[in-house]
Q: What sequence folds into this?
């Protein structure tokens, strides 16, 4: 991979990140609703108190100065203090990262592996019963809203059958090894929702990429050489068909964080999605800003990672 | 395939060996411990009584601390708390309170009158917003001994007997915070908390829930419950499912649509709590500032009366609250039963759209240009009303939609503007609205709620800067009346006066909805009265008296697959993966 390619990609990512920072900052300043006003209504403040609070939170300074201050704070890892709870945003976010990472990590991993396998099998035997049924299944799952699917699973497996807890991360009474089992029980339904929600997408993309490759000349050549079919598939067709799916996987790791908002809200999963949901309702600017920033940064970072790895596994790309 | 089989056998063996150990470790609960599990949709925002923000915060503080005088279980009237009583001097400028000598903080330190004086001074000196209004006329506090507190006021007052809704905190814990920056005080988090109430907060996991343990030094009756566990749900349906499954024992803050599904279920009892807030339709009379531009026609009592007549409050109750509310009349909430005036139905402004039309015709508001909207005869402007409605207030947006229809029928056009509370606050501050729909709640004592309608509170607490010297005079009179019965007569008269003058329309008294499992806990003590709150809201009596059914332990288990199933599943997956790898390697060797 050429150094120029790498430099260009990193530079693009850095520029995009700055754009996001600027957008993030100004977007939340032009939105309606004064955060201090929100505090006043619930706390009975006088005008003088409001002015004092405004100064304390730096809301009385001119916009450009607020922006420069914001950039410096972000660089230092200081994401501000939550207006509602008076707790540093980095603490709030720190507490929520792990549940989301667990849910999204396990869910995306399973969805990818299963989806890709289904896509390969279906694409290779196009028109078979397996292919037709998984294609329809994938389309149905792909188009199903996650919130609705989540509610359906919750009502059935937690409500009617009572096999799993209706939500949350752990039950407070457990400790030690049983905590792992407890978390697994709580994780099952949200994870299943996520897997079902994303598996179709991977299967469809993998299948269509494979369909394109099977008609290539080199596949015909391999077959003509007498290479066993499973080896033609594994060594010649799948690696070439895997490129678009590969990008999709990287991209979705970035996006899934946002997609998890709905699932986390359905299952009361104490992750970043839930934090985002609550802070939007309470107009807790510093928290919303931080989550927005993290989500955008995730997309940018994974995009960069996809570009770089893509360049590594497909040398054609990095010479463009 | 042989390889796969081998891995499966190995995995199963592992499960057989480990399963008993896992099974045993799941039983960490002390079998004799009584745990009350509460489901709620409101997460705790702040665990510190000086930073309370949301409903859950008040509940925790109410359970953790005592007040100088407490709100009674029956009707929230002042009754003995930390003080067995407070006696005024004849001029009502000095109040002497006798403090109990048997109260100890949860860390074992005795609670004395100086803790109380410290808390009051702390609030005044550090300008704690939620509580400072309870200390009018710059009072000073003296503690001649551990069991006496003297409250000295610059003017006659009944403030100590209101009573101040202030949680008494331990001086030895909070003294280091005295004089610090307000942000620092607000963000102080002290867990485990030191309190004098029956339970103290010992654990809080944001977004998940919190735990309150029994205070071993509690001065009152020993609670039967050892621990209260609160679980936060993001979603009403999930919370109700958890109640049906027995994952939780009681659910708080239930929405009407979900509440209905719980009625009539075996082992579940529902509680419709008497309303302590009201849905308010406020008129704007201007005066908030340069941006204030209310519709002049609303100054006309006939117009306001016609609007009141055009609104079908019963339909609002039925549609916006699915019947879990009462039609509103006066501005003192129903939960303050001692002070609330119920207007007899034959004296109420009736729902009468035809009468409203006739009244507007008579007052000269005719539709001169034939567009279906009446015009103001003095300005010639059409009666077009901007009406923001709080999206965060249950039922406000729905009521708003109904009102658009009601007023359309009498020739008044309403532009409904649903808004977040932050945006509502902007409208209120700027005065750029004609009417709005929001809510009011407050103390059991009506003083504060009445003060909101005085002219002096324009742009402070008044909704629309209504001003009426006669009402202001009555407010001052009730404030200087120290006989409770006599004061009530004036408070009644004031409610009646507001009802007739219509500076605002009380649309509905919505109920708070709770439900609990009858097969798990019994002997709740709702406050106020039989249809009061089951969970700590005004006082903590209920969590002291509640006990498990049959007197046995109630610690239920959370549903889920047992450990061995998980282990078996993990083993099978590992076996398949390993088998596939081995098979792949073998095939590659062949190729």
A:
């Amino acid at each position: 991979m050429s150094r120029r390619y790498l430099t260009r990609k990193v530079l693009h990512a850095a520029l995009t990140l700055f754009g996001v920072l600027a957008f993030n900052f100004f977007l939340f300043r032009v939105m309606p609703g004064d955060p201090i006003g929100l505090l006043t209504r619930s706390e009975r403040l006088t005008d003088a108190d409001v002015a004092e609070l405004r100064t304390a939170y730096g809301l009385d300074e001119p916009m450009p100065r607020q922006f420069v201050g914001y950039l410096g704070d972000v660089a230092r890892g200081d994401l501000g203090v939550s207006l509602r709870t008076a707790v540093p945003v980095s603490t709030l976010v720190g507490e929520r990262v792990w549940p989301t990472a667990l849910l999204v990590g396990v869910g995306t991993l399973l969805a990818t592996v299963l989806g890709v396998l289904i896509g390969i099998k279906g694409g290779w035997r196009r028109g078979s019963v397996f292919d037709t049924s998984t294609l329809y299944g994938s389309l149905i799952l792909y188009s199903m809203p996650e919130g609705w699917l989540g509610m359906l699973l919750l009502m059935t497996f937690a409500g009617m059958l009572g096999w799993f807890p209706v939500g949350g991360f752990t039950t407070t009474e457990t400790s030690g090894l049983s905590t792992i089992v407890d978390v697994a029980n709580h994780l099952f339904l949200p994870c299943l929702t996520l897997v079902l929600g994303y598996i179709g997408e991977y299967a469809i993309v993998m299948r269509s990429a494979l369909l394109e490759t099977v008609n290539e000349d080199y596949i015909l050549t391999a077959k003509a050489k007498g290479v066993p079919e499973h080896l033609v598939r594994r060594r010649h067709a799948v690696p070439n068909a895997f490129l678009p799916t590969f990008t999709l996987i990287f991209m979705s790791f970035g996006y899934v964080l946002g997609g998890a908002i709905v699932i986390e809200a359905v299952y009361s999963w104490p992750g970043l999605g839930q934090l985002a949901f609550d802070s939007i309702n309470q107009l807790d600017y510093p928290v919303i800003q931080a989550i927005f920033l993290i989500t955008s940064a995730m997309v940018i970072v994974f995009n960069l990672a996809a570009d770089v790895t893509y360049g590594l596994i497909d040398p054609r790309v990095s010479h463009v | 395939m042989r390889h796969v089989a081998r891995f499966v056998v190995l995995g199963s063996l592992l499960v057989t060996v480990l399963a008993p150990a896992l099974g045993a470790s799941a039983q960490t609960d002390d079998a004799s411990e009584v745990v009350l599990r509460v489901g709620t949709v409101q997460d705790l925002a702040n665990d510190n009584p000086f930073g309370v923000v949301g409903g859950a915060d008040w509940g925790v503080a109410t359970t953790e601390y005592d007040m100088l005088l407490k709100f009674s279980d029956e009707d929230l009237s002042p009754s003995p708390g930390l003080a067995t009583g407070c006696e005024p001097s004849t001029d009502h400028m000095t109040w002497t309170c006798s403090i109990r000598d048997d109260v100890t903080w949860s860390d074992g330190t005795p609670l004395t009158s100086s803790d109380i004086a410290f808390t009051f001074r702390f609030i005044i000196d550090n300008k704690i917003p939620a509580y400072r209004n309870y200390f009018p006329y710059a009072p000073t506090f003296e503690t001649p001994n551990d069991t006496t507190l003297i409250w000295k006021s610059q003017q006659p007052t009944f403030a100590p007997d209101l009573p101040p809704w202030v949680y008494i905190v331990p001086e030895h814990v909070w003294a280091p915070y005295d004089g610090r920056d307000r942000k620092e005080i607000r963000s102080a988090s002290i867990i485990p908390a030191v309190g004098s109430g029956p339970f103290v907060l010992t654990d809080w996991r944001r977004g998940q829930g919190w735990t309150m343990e029994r205070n071993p030094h509690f001065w009152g009756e020993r609670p039967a419950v050892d621990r209260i566990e609160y679980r936060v749900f993001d979603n009403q349906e999930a919370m109700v499912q958890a109640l049906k499954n027995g994952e939780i024992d009681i659910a708080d803050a239930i929405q009407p649509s979900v509440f209905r599904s719980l009625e009539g279920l075996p082992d579940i009892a529902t509680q419709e709590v008497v309303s302590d807030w009201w849905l308010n339709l406020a008129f704007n009379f201007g005066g908030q500032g340069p941006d204030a531009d209310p519709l002049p026609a609303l100054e006309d009592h006939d117009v306001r009366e016609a609007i009141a007549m055009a609104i079908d409050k019963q339909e609002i109750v039925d549609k916006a609250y699915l019947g879990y509310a009462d039609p509103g009349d006066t501005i003192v909430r129903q939960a303050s039963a001692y002070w609330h005036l119920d207007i007899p139905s034959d004296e109420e402004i009736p729902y009468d759209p035809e009468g409203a039309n006739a009244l507007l015709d008579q007052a000269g508001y005719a539709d001169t240009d034939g567009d279906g909207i009446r015009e103001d005869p003095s300005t010639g402007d059409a009666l077009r009303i901007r009406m923001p409605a709080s999206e965060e207030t249950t039922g406000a947006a729905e009521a708003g939609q109904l009102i658009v229809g009601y007023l359309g029928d009498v020739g008044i056009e309403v532009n409904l503007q649903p808004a977040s509370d932050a945006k509502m606050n902007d409208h209120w501050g700027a005065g750029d609205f004609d009417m709005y729909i929001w809510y009011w709640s407050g103390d059991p004592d009506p003083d504060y709620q009445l003060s909101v309608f005085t002219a002096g509170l324009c742009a402070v607490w008044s909704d629309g800067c209504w001003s009426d010297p006669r009402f202001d005079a009555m407010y001052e009179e009730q404030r200087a009346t120290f006989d409770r019965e006599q004061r009530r007569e004036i408070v009644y008269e004031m409610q009646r006066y507001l009802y007739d003058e219509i500076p605002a329309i009380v649309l509905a008294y919505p109920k708070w909805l709770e439900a609990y499992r009858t097969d798990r806990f019994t002997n709740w003590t709702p406050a106020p009265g039989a249809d009061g709150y089951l969970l700590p809201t005004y006082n903590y009596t209920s969590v002291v008296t509640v006990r498990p059914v049959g007197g046995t332990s109630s610690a239920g288990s959370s549903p889920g697959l047992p450990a061995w199933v998980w282990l078996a599943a993990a083993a099978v997956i590992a076996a398949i993966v390993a088998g596939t790898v081995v098979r792949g390697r073998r095939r590659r060797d062949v190729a």
Remarks:
- Chain A touches chain B through 68 residues (CB under 8 Å).
- The two ends of chain A are 11 Å apart (CA to CA).
